[in-house]
Every structure is written in structure tokens, then in C-alpha cells.
Amino acid sequence: MSTGLIIAIVIAAAVFVVAALLAVRARGSGPQGLKRRFGPEYERTVAQHGGDTKAAERELAERVQRHGALHERELDPAERERYAARWTTAQEHFVDSPRESVTEIDRLLAEVAAARGFPAEAQYDDQVDALSVHHADHVDGYRRIHRAALAPVGGSPLGQAGTEEMRTAMLEARSLFDDLVAPSSREHGRHRAGVGADTDTGGHLPWSADQSRPKES
Length: 217
Hints:
This protein is an all-alpha fold and 217 residues long. It folds into 2 domains: 3-67, no CATH class; 77-186, no CATH class. It is 64% helix and 0% strand. The chain is built from 9 helices and no strands. It has helices at residues 3-29, 31-38, 40-48, 53-67, 77-92, 98-115, 124-134, 139-150, 160-181. Helix 2 (31-38) packs across helix 3, helix 4 crosses helix 7 and helix 5 packs antiparallel against helix 6 (98-115).
């Protein structure tokens, strides 16, 4: 076999490999691929861009490019136990101190995410973007709890509406917490459902989602 023929075969093989890689990347970053990967986060981003799907898809594709290769570090059992205990303590304090409870949950999510290998808690926007790539189904719960923790009180006692908003934010944030503290052996894909509040990651919330008052013990 001549040298020229060998070179031609090598070049053809290289072109085929590059084309295959580009095709795989296109399937993952094209409109349908982004919809599958981001789920509700795709719709939220489109709405944030005023219905401009092209702009939303550019943003989501950029997130994948920046954070798609991030490797999540496995938490050891002691870490999971410690974080679960902090969540339980925070939720138990909600009835008497909702603001402090929500602030602690916001801080806890940031710390757990950083421990898993996401951007540091001080880089909130980057941390949320990275979480949206790997935990798209539940990342908006983090946004809600963060907004609730930072919302001004205005110097007056919190009304029922404010308390209920914080309660709902805490319920939604729990799904992301469960995702982050669950052992990888129990994970079944990037968009699996939340582990649930009745697992060993912290017990039941002391209220139900459709009630305006905490349950009495």
C-alpha cells in the first residue's frame, strides 16, 4: 500500500470521527437536545427572554459549554449525615423563625453544592448556572429560597403571605437538597425525580404543601 493511500485513509478516518463528534454535540445542544436536557429550565429561560427561543437556547448552550464537563464529587456518609441534620434543624425552627430558617436553608444549599464540586457559594450566579446543567429539574427551588432569604422585611412583622411564600420555597428547595446529598449509586440519570422528604436525608417537613398552617404535633 502506497504512502499516499495510507495518508488518504488516515485523513478520511479523521474527517469521519470529527463529523461524528459534531453530530453528537449537535444532538445534545440543538433545540430538541436542550429541551430534553433542561426540561422546565428550558421553558423558564425562554420566558425570561420574552419568548425568544433563539436567545434562550444560546444561553443554555453556553451553560453546557461552561459547566457540562463538571464532575460532581461524591459526599461521604458523614458529610451527608451532617448536612441532613442541619436541614432538619432548620425546618424545625421554621414555625418560630421562618426568616432565619429560610436563610439557613439557602446557606446550606450553597455549601452542599460547593462540596459537590460546583462553583463556590460566593459565586451564586455561576453556581446556579452549573446546577441548572446537572440538576435542571430542581434548580429553580434554589432560586426561590435564595430570593425568599434576601427579600426585605420592611421593618414590620411578616404576614401570612410572606410566611407562605417562604414555606413554598422551602418545600421546592428540598428536592434539590435531596438530589445533592443522595449517594450516586441511587441516582438514575441527571433528571431523576427527587428522593423525597420521607427518606433518610432529613425526615418529613413539619407541614403539608396545601395547608396554610404548620401541622401540630
